[in-house]
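Data availability excerpt. The first of two example chains:
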Amino acid sequence: MEDLSKKIAKELLEIGAVFLNLENPFTWASGIKSPIYCDNRLTLTAPKVRDDVEEGFIQVIKENYPEVEVLMGTSTSGIPHAAIIADRMNLPMGYVRGSNKDHGRGNQIEGKLEKGQKVVVIEDLISTAGSVLDVVKALREAGADVLGIASIYTHNMKKSKDRFEEEKVKNVSMTNFDVLVEIAADEGYIKQEDIQKLIKFRNNPSDESWRTN
């Protein structure tokens, strides 16, 4: 798993799916200034990286959720990955909307799902974990046995860890913040002294003192 984590982190940096900029941080919707920006949708436009990501998902699922019966992607970023993995593993798949649609049958869960089926949720990015836990909640309410989540990358934020523990949800990410910043420093994307600033941000995103200390 360590080799996979390093490989995926390096590839995310190479294609700009995860971008670090301490001088000109990005602004989140909440107004928080962030030195890290993630757009893992870019993995879909890089065939070699996409293939490595899908094989990584399969490895994570086989090692951690061998009893899986159905894959459910998060809307929208998890859908293409769930479809590709399901095809390679010969599994049924569907996806979960952020809320019930306002027309037709008003579904939130798309695709056939039987009560008691063992489900793995496919997600691209874990930050505070709020949206993916909404997906887990919807699946549980529909009667699914949610084994856990498989994701490409996690910020390893305390808030997400606390939420997963509280909701008793397992998440396995291929790579994470800590691995990524170490590789970013080794590869020259950032300076070694920037690592502590990034960790300080990750530990408390609302505290902007990382920008000056």
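And the second chain:
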Amino acid sequence: MATIYYDKDADLGRLAGRKVAVIGYGSQGHAHALNLRDSGVDVRVGLYPDSKSWAKAEAAGLTVKSVDQAAAEADIIMMVIPDQTQARVYKASIEANLAPGKTLMFAHGFNIRFGQIVPPAGVDVSMIAPKAPGHRVREVYQDGQGTPALVAVYQDASGHALEDALAYGAGIGSGRAGLLLTTFAEETETDLFGEQAVLCGGVSELVKAAFTTLVDAGYQPQVAYFECMHELKLIVDLFYRGGLSYMRYSVSDTAEHGDYYSGQKVITDATREAMRGILADIQSGAYAEEWLDENEKGRPWFNAARERERNQPIEQVGRELRSMMPWLDPVVVED
């Protein structure tokens, strides 16, 4: 059975009198910092001096300092900057400020799992990984609810690393929804796999392939967009509330029959074998090595792929249709 902790299992008082530094103010960083602040925690944000986020954090009423200063004065340091920059920032500004008794925390286990960051022996190393984008972590907290999170301890120098991590989790609101005990390796490997096989890579390719199939067969691109992308949210919302069974209960019998009849024609044994290959590359570290090497080279393949994908026909059609539905609060991503 999984071990899940809630607010009743956490003591937010463990953070009383202790300084917390949130390194970064992006998607997760702003949510962590603001939620902790609103939970009564003494928090500061660590940024590099010319960061565009500096003014945003100060405008939100937060104390902002350089990464070096924030790490030096903090008892607990939470890393919420991008995976590919964490090791460099750690070496430059955090490592020298890690004294025995401090805690180094992560919202994703990538750099610990793949050995990019090797903390000293005298510090606690733990993780609170919310299972939602940062804006939802913040919004749900403000609504008096919480986002589920994973909790893990990699190094327990103090003997109470888990208790402190649970307190942090309660501080950002995740204790309201549940903190599932895991390991750095399990969180990292499943997170990368989920992103690549389903949440980002798998869904994106499925949607594009279905859209192209309809358009190539002569159907209007606008109709194909509504059928293959726009309605996806309605189905995912059903998954979210009641799983596959609730989705099948909610749709027509014809749609449910189509689910059983054609689903396995799309997701074949070859697809499952490809998924096993994706997981194997993640587990071996081959994927991490390739991604880090791509960043070292200046990200030529990544940037070319990003540009190519932004110009996909489905993106062009979707941008036009969404602009006609202002109630969706449509967003246009600029370079």
